[in-house]
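Cont'd.
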Amino acid sequence: MEPAEKIFETRELNVNMGPQHPATHGVLRLVLDIDGETIVNVTPHVGYLHRGIEKLGESLSYFQGLPLTDRMDYVSAMSNNIGYCVAVEKLYGIEAPERAKFIRTIVGEVSRISNHLLWLATHALDIGAMTVFLYCFREREWLLDLFEMISGARLTVTYPRIGGVRNDVSQEFLDSLWKFTDEFPSRILEYETLIDQNRIWLLRTKGIGVISAEEAVSWGMTGPTLRGSGVSYDIRKHMPYDAYDKVEFEVPIGTEGDTYDRYRCRMLEMRQSNNIIRQLIEKLPPGPVMAEDPKFTMPPKDKMYPITHPEKDLAYFILEKACKGCGMCLRACPAKAITGEKKAPHKINQALCVNCASCLVTCKFKSVTVVAGGKGLSEEKLAELAVAPDQLPEDIKQAQQYLTRQFEFVKKGPKVPEGEIYVATEVPKGELGFYFVSDGSAKPSRMRVRAPSFIHAGCLPRLCEGHLIADVISVIGTIDIVLGECDR
Amino acid sequence: MAVTEVRISLHAAGIAPKEIAEKIKEKFPDQVVDVAEFRDQVSVIVKRDQIVAMLRYLHDDPLLSFDHLQDLTAVDYLNKKDVRFEVVYNLYSIRFRHNIRIRAQVPDNDPKISSVVPIWAGANWHERECFDMFGIVFSGHPDLRRILMPEDWEGYPLRKDYPLKGFEFEKDWPGFTEVIKRSKELREFEWEG
């Protein structure tokens, strides 16, 4: 009888994995060249989620560019925001107040835990452990509720701002977070009971995707993916930002550089993050949460309240003599309270007016004025009380100045000194770097995002070498990629 | 257990970036064009001719040992500088904790520079992205294809002369006009109930 090799022809097979494969964590397409079950070569195709964030960033001012960063790594949006803010602050040359730095570090670590929980959930689910998924999402829900409490959003938070944070945290938030940190270590033990010594888990993770320390550094790996190979590179320690130089924590590093070690690193990292949060809550100093810089930060909202608060006892009034009827205020009014024909004096319907001061800022002829104590008065009475804008009391004038400053800030943005800067921060996935080139205008001339997921996805061919198809799933899980960040 | 927790000190050692710039100047005197400093970050602007030799020196020198390529990207200085492009290498030494930025000038008429993939394997995708976005060709790159944009895309999006919405926005996606037309047709109908 003829040998089997002569009867059957063997050849390499091309298999498409993705872009709509649930285990690829997004729209990642892998073309696998396989010989039987063994991987010969992997070609990743990315870019399905490319939204041109770098190009968009060049068309927006630094202040406007902040929400773009949420849309990169949507699993840990908070850390992305912090990375952006730290970078722009360094470019501006301003510094956030102490309390804001502490709050940012707290929410950054909360985001790290929630990211690692999602990673563990999906990684375990891919490998076949369904229960871990449910347990992890139980805790993640708690953290997302906390985010909702401080920012109103669960995923795309935009809570950190350039020069501080959006608003102060409440005692309720700190209490709930403290309770979480009390309970969380026992919850981690729960997950570990399920998989840490599980025979299937060990078989699927030990010795899979092994990479040595030198090679991992050469491939540009960062974060827990690098530390699993035994390189103690953590930006929180190497280039401390925010409040990381004021807390004590250890950095877990692996020895083997395989999937199991990376998994252990992340598990221990969650415990360390838990520790950091506790330390920071204990040390949280009082004070403001937003830097006050006359040029680079938005003026505080309460400074404008004398003329913009909806419940203040005041009324907006158009002086008939000064009004030319150009219609600018009519278009600017968001409540549609202003009426009038062209080239005839306009009128404000007091019942509809919301005291937003849009007409005050837009009027070029100084015809809009504020009548203090004019709420609910009749038109005739208002006309009697109204004075020209130049003769208004000092506090209203000052509030008006703040309002104009805010208007300029949002509309144009502050001009930035000429220069270039690269600032890296440690996000849950690795090193997130922002490289800004400023040409002296209010918009960045070049905004570059060094996304860890992009570089880790590039390592896939190296990590999958010689493994089985099933192990590709473990490898995708272990490098912890989010395609929104990878493609930007 | 294999994984251990280590204490990493906060104190940064290493050589000041200015001294590193001096070292590069000494080693490659005719290559360095300028040294710029902004917010304690030093960048060395160099010619592209010996870029690989220079980066190889920075990577291999036992006292410098820049083992970590933080970032590789390009910047378009259209109408701002004489040499239009600059390829930027952000280097960091994990061992000594110092960093430096190298900016290699690449002219518009011949956008070419040698690839650094033999030094840092991770440069592979960075260079592909640079090629995709700026059209800079990295000679010696093992697999220079477009990475984020579709393979048949025309133009290089991150160049300054490329408009934000693309050259012909409506033509880019043929379905666009169709959707607009269809939405106009359907607007007449009452959709409630």
